[in-house]
Amino acid sequence: MTDTTSQAYDAIRALEYRYARLLDEDRLEEWPKLFVERGVYKVIPRENLARQPALPIFFCDSRAMMVDRVKSLREANVYNLHYSRHVVSNIEVLSARDDTFEVAACYTVYQTDLEGQTRLFSVGQYRDVISNGAGEFRFREKIAVCDTFNIPNLLAIPL
Amino acid sequence: MLPSPWAANFAASAGPCLWKQQSRPDFLRKAASRCAAGKAAGLALLINAAGNRAKVMSMFPAIASPSRDGSRVPFELFTRADVFSREQEMIFRGPVWNYVALEAELPEPCDFKTSFVGDTPIVVSRAEDGSLHAFVNRCAHRGATVQRQACGNARQHRCVYHQWAYNARGELVGVPYRRGVPGMGGYAADFDPKAHGLARLRVASHKGVIFASFSPDTAPLKDYLDEPLIAALDRLFSRPVKVLGHMRQRVRGNWKLYSENTRDPYHAALLHGFHATFGLYRTNQKRKGGSDRARAHSTGVTFGDDWRQASQSGNIGQDKFVTNYSLADPSLLEGRPDFNDGVTVSITSIFPCLVVQQIMNTLATRHIRPKAADEFELYWTYFGYQDDDERMTACRLKQANLVGPAGLISMEDSEAIELIQRAIVRDGREDSFLEFGGLHADLDQDRQGEATIRAFWRYYAGLMGLT
C-alpha cells in the first residue's frame, strides 16, 4: 500500500464489498449510485487489451447510462434466470493522490441456476479509480477485465 | 470422436431396424417410417469382455430428415453426436466456403491468426509475398497443435514437441536430426518434406473477407456467394476496415439454432425488447432482402427510419414492451450514418458459419464455431473503417453496448437457443414447426416469415444426404 491511510483503505474496501452485495441482492437500481455522475463502467475482454482503445462489451460513461442499462434489464431484456455471487479479493491501492485512488482487485462471479447448480461465470480483475468526495467514496471508473473472455451464454448483470 | 466400433454407423448402412414397432409410441413410429427408406439403422458390432462378438441394437439409428419443404425439423438434428460428426464431413469439409478471418486481422507478411473450420483448428496466414494460406493446425509428425498463439507474426510455425517447423504456407521446412546424429537414426534417404506439410485448405477472399474450403468441389467463391450476397459484402467492405476487437460467447446449444436465429425476422421484435421499451421502434421501417440461387444464404436490410428516438408504435405482440421510457442518456445512439442508403440494420448470413452485421454504427462479423452437438462459440470480430476519426471510433465503441454477449438488443438470442437445447434432450423425432408466413410464400417477398429458415434446412438436408 502507498501512503493511503488505513481509514481510506477501509472506505475503499467497504465500497468494493457494497458494490458486490448490491448486485448479489438484486438491488440493481442502487448500482449506479456507487458511481460519480460522470462515472465510467466497462467490461473489457482480456484479449482486447492489446488494442487501444480496447473494445468493451458493456460500456457506460455516465450514471444516466447505467440507469438506462438497469431499466433495460428490468423491462426489456430476457436473460438466464440465476442468482449471482460476486466475490472481491486482493484489494490493493496502487496510488493515492488528492483523494483519488487507483485500486486493483480480483473478482470472481458465480452463477447459480434455479435448480441450485452453481458454476463459475467469470473471473478477472477490477481496475478502479475511486474518489473521496466529502467523505463519500465513489467509483469514478470501474473496469472489469475478464480473464473469462469467452462469456458463458451472455452477460446481463454487471460484473 | 466416437469410439471406433460405432463409426460404421455413419455410413448409410442397410441393416434392418431392430426396434420393435409395436412397443413404440406414435411419434416414434411416424418418425421411423420417415427414415425407413434406404436409411435404416446400422448394426453395431460390439465385443464383450469374453471376446465374443454380439450383434446388438444400434445406439445410432438412421438420421431423420427435415421434411421436404423444410417446415419440420426433427430435434435430433440438434442433439446427436453422430449428426455433428457427419456435419463436419458433409458440411464444413464439404463443398462450402467457411469464413475464417478478415484480411484486416493479418495485414502484414507472415501475420497469422488461428481459427476454425467446423471444429477443426486451422491457421490462417499471409506469406512473405502477401498471398493468403490456410492449413490445419496439427503437426504432420505426431499430431500436436503447432501454433499455440491466437494471432501474431511468424516466419515459421514450429511444433514444440519435436521442433518440426513449417513456413507461412504450411510447408515443412525443418526436421531436427533428419540425417541422424550419433545414437539417433534420422529419416531414410527418400524422406520427402513435401509429403509432410500441414494439410492445406483452399483459400479465397472477397473484399478482405477470407474463406477456406477443404473440398476441391467447392464452386468459385463468387459463384458460391452469388449476386445479392456479393452486393451485401461490397456495401459493408467498400472501404478498408480496421478491427476494433473481439467478443466471444460460449453457447450451450447447437450451432444450427443460431443459423436459424439469424434467418428469422419473426422473433426480432418479439424476443428483443430494447427498441420498443425505449420508444425506438417505428412503423415506417421497411425490410427487403435477397438470397443466392441455391438458397443457402440470406441477406436482409431494414431501412426507412432515422437515428433519433421517436414516438413509439404499439405493434401487435410487442405490448409487453411498450412503455413511456426514454433513454436518460441518449448518447448511446448518437452516431452518423456510414452509408447514404438509409439502412439501419443489415444482417447477412452466409452458409454455413458466417453472419455479417451492420446495426446502426456497429459493424461485425460473427463466426459460428461449432464445438459439439450441444455447444458452439460465437466469435465476433468488431470493426470500423480505417478512415474513422476519433469521434467515430468512440461512437462505435459505445454502440458495442447494443450487440455481443452483453448486447442490449442481442443478449436474448443465446438464451433462446439454450432454452431450446435444454428442452429437446428427448423426443428427437419430434419436430420444430416452421410455417410462419405460409408455405407458399416466395422467398424474395417473404422477409417477415420463416421462408428463409425453411430454405436453410432444404440446403442443409441436401448436403447431408438427408433428402
Structural commentary:
The complex is a heterodimer of chains A (159) and B (467). By secondary structure, chain A is an alpha+beta fold. Chain A has a single domain, classed as Roll (Nuclear Transport Factor 2, Chain: A), CATH 3.10.450. Chain A is built from two helices and seven strands, in the order αββαβββββ. Chain A has a six-stranded mixed sheet with strand order 2-1-6-5-4-3, covered by helices on one side. In chain A, β5 and β6 form a beta hairpin. Chain A is globular and about 45 Å long. With 467 residues, chain B is an alpha+beta fold. In chain B, the strands form five sheets. A seven-stranded antiparallel sheet of chain B has the order 4-13-12-7-6-5-8. Chain B has a seven-stranded antiparallel sheet with strand order 14-20-19-18-17-16-15, with helices on both faces. In chain B, β15 and β16 form a beta hairpin. Chain B starts with 25 loop residues before the first helix and ends with a helix. The N terminus of chain B is likely disordered. At the A-B interface, β2, α2 and β7 of A face β14, α7, α8 and α9 of B. β7 of chain A pairs parallel with β14 of chain B.
